[in-house]
Specification:
The protein has eight helices and six strands; from the N terminus they run E-E-E-H-E-E-H-H-E-H-H-H-H-H. It has helices at 46-54, 82-99, 107-111, 127-197, 202-216, 219-235, 243-263, 267-287, and strands at residues 7-14, 18-27, 32-37, 60-70, 76-80, 117-121. Helix 1 (46-54) links the parallel strand 3 (32-37) and strand 4. The longest helix has 71 residues, at 127-197. The termini are close together.
Amino acid sequence: MVKSMTGFGRKTKENDDCKVTVELKAVNHRYFEAVFRIPRQFAYLETKLKKTLSGVLKRGRVECFISFEGAQIAKHHLAVDFELADEYYRFLKQAEARYEFSESLTMRDFLADPVFLEVRESSEADSALEALVLETVHGATKRLDEMRSLEGAEIALYFKSHLEAFESCMLAVRQAIPEMEAAYKARLQERLAKLAEAEFDERMMLTELGLFLEKADINEETERLDSHLKQFYSILTQEGAVGRKLDFLIQEMNREVNTIGSKAMSITITENVVEMKTTLEKIREQVQNVE
């Protein structure tokens, strides 16, 4: 099944303490790439999150946005420098006795100076919240993939419509081959007649015949195009990333059409070659959106 590389997926989940919202935005890219816009407490989760995304998305650039509502997303703890506080305490006691201060040392003296005491944020998030984040990312990925599949189905229909137009042009080319061969044969006979009137050169005649065979025969190219078309239709039914295969196939088809155009000695064939090249270009543009 053809899938688009572009799409959007959003999922919200919550527990008793927090609500997590994940938004995924995917755009075209030659390879798979994931960019995360998440709180730093979850930076250590990026490997797991990337694995979740790459398990479903094979190509494309994905931006992952995670937001929170409710409880704090990280634990906090109290950090106390008792060694420094002891020195501070001894100094104040000595200063009080030495200089006869009237005020005694109180707890407020310690709390007023954060050098001894501060509240620090844990570098890792709560495990329950971590599980909620992973579950939400998984849900958003599923929705993104569903959207990419829907867009891929539309692209597949687009391909089939233009391939039908391409096949119509190929039919017109085949029907014009006898007329082209007859015209070239007439030209060849005219040349040979002129040669016969003068001094007849058998080697020159064979050269002219060789040119005729080379110029007029486009059956090989049309047969290869038939084969490529069958491959194209077959690839559209395959699972997984098929964009690169289709891109290569379009290049091969374009090469065959160019060869036909260079051999064509018929206005009908030339006109249809132009149409075929235009159709292939339209298909190629959409192939760039396929995973």
